[in-house]
Write a structure and sequence with these properties.
Blueprint lengths: L6 E6 L10 H7 L5 E8 L8 E8 L3 E2 L2 E2 L14 E7 L2 E6 L5 E6 L4 E4 L4 E6 L5 E8 L7 H6 L3 E6 L2 E6 L6
Antiparallel strand pairs: 1-2, 2-3, 3-11, 4-5, 6-9, 6-11, 7-8, 7-10, 12-13
Bound molecules: 5-phospho-D-arabinohydroxamic acid and zinc ion.
C-alpha cells in the first residue's frame, strides 16, 4: 500500500511490444497482453521548484528470454539526475549515455541507486516476484522515450542458464 497512492500509469505488453528482441514471442503473448508495470505518480507541479516522486511496480516475466522491463528514457532536460530506492524484489538498473557508456546496477531492498545527469535509465525485473522501487527527480526533468523506443539500450538483459546476462543489442546504433 502506498500513501499517498498517486496517479496510476499502466504499461501492458501491447504498449511496448516492439521494444523486445523476440518479436515472435511478443506476438504470441499479446493474446493475454500481460501487465508489465505500473507507476504510481504523486502529482506535483512540473517545474524546477518541485521534486517529482513515484513508485514503480515491475512484474516478473519474460518475452522469450528477455526479462520484463520498463521502456526506459533520457530526461527531456538531459542533465536532470534521479534517485531510485528499492523496496521489494530484485532487479537491474540499466544505464547509458549518448556516447555509448553503459552500466548496470543490481537492486535489492535497501539499494539506493543514483542516476547521474545525462544517463538514460531502464529497470529490469530479474527475479520471480514484483520488483518495486521509489524514485525522485527534479520537477522539470520530463521524459524522452524517442531513440530508445526504436533502438533500445546498448545491451539487453536475458536469462541464460538460470541467471541474467547482458548481451549486445543488435538494433543499437551509437
Ligand atoms: C521512473 C520511470 C518509471 C517507468 O519513475 O518513469 O520507472 O519507466 P519509464 O518511464 O521508462 O516507462 C523514472 O525514471 N522517472 O524519471
Ligand atoms: Zn527518469
Amino acid at each position: 500500500a502506498l500513501n499517498p497512492q498517486g496517479k496510476l500509469v499502466v504499461r501492458k505488453l501491447s504498449d511496448m511490444r516492439e521494444m523486445y528482441q523476440d518479436q515472435d514471442a511478443a506476438q504470441a503473448m499479446l493474446a493475454d497482453n500481460p501487465l508489465v508495470y505500473e507507476v504510481y505518480n504523486v502529482v506535483v507541479p512540473e517545474n524546477e521548484e518541485h521534486i517529482q516522486h513515484c513508485t514503480t511496480i515491475l512484474y516478473p516475466g519474460k518475452v522469450g528470454q528477455e526479462y520484463f522491463m520498463t521502456k526506459g528514457h533520457y530526461h527531456e532536460i538531459i542533465n536532470r539526475a534521479e534517485i531510485y530506492f528499492c523496496l521489494k524484489g530484485r532487479g537491474l538498473l540499466v544505464m547509458q549515455t549518448k556516447e555509448g557508456d553503459f552500466s548496470t546496477l543490481e537492486m535489492v531492498p535497501g539499494t539506493i541507486a543514483y542516476v547521474p545527469p545525462y544517463w538514460a535509465h531502464r529497470s529490469v525485473n530479474t527475479g520471480d516476484e514484483p520488483f518495486v522501487f521509489f524514485a525522485a527527480y527534479p520537477g522539470d526533468a520530463g521524459h524522452d522515450y524517442g531513440g530508445i523506443e526504436t533502438e533500445g539500450f546498448v545491451k539487453v538483459i536475458v536469462e541464460e542458464a538460470g541467471r541474467y546476462a547482458a548481451i549486445d543489442n543488435p538494433k543499437y546504433v551509437k
